[in-house]
Amino acid sequence: MQVTSELIGYLAATLTTASFVPQAWHTFRTKDVSGISLGMYSAFTIGVALWLVYGWLLAAWPIVVANAVTLSLAGLILSMKLRYR
User: Fold this and answer.
1) Residue 32 to residues 2, 29, 77: CA-CA distances in angstroms?
2) 1 pLDDT band (50/70/90 cuts)?
3) Residue 50 to residues 7, 70, 71, Cα–Cα distance (Å)
4) Cα torsion 36, 40, 46, 48: sign
5) Which pLDDT tens digit goes with each residue over 32-78?
6) Are 77 and 24 in contact (CB under 8 A)?
7) SS3 sequence, the chain?
8) Residues 6 or more apart whose Cβ sits within 8 Å of residue 58
9) Predicted TM-score of the model (pTM)
10) What is the CA radius of gyration of the chain?
11) CB of 20 within 8 A of CB of 73?
12) What angle do CA 28, 66, 40 make, to 5 degrees?
């Protein structure tokens, strides 16, 4: 059962994290941040950081890996929003 739940966790992590790649790539390529809400991305980035800490404390590696990657992508988008607004 443990293997199945971890597999589901890694699959969910892969799908949700991969969904940020097109936005990050588009934003990096075009430097167009006009459609991105600073408030939303700030709250989202802090939330992802907290999920990362939560996963670390539980030693839940699918949560840690997914949120580490998502935090990197969200942080990149947020920094571009601050730089190119």
Assistant:
1) 43, 8, 10
2) low
3) 22, 12, 10
4) negative
5) 998 889 999 999 999 999 999 999 999 988 899 999 999 999 999 99
6) yes
7) CHHHHHHHHHHHHHHHHHCCHHHHHHHHHHCCCCCCCHHHHHHHHHHHHHHHHHHHHHCCHHHHHHHHHHHHHHHHHHHHHHHHC
8) none
9) 0.83
10) 14
11) yes
12) 55
Tokens 């700030």 -> residue: 42
Indicate the length of the chain as a whole number: 85
CA distance 85 to 7: 40
Q: Domains, the chain, ranges and CATH?
A: 2-84 (1.20.1280.290)
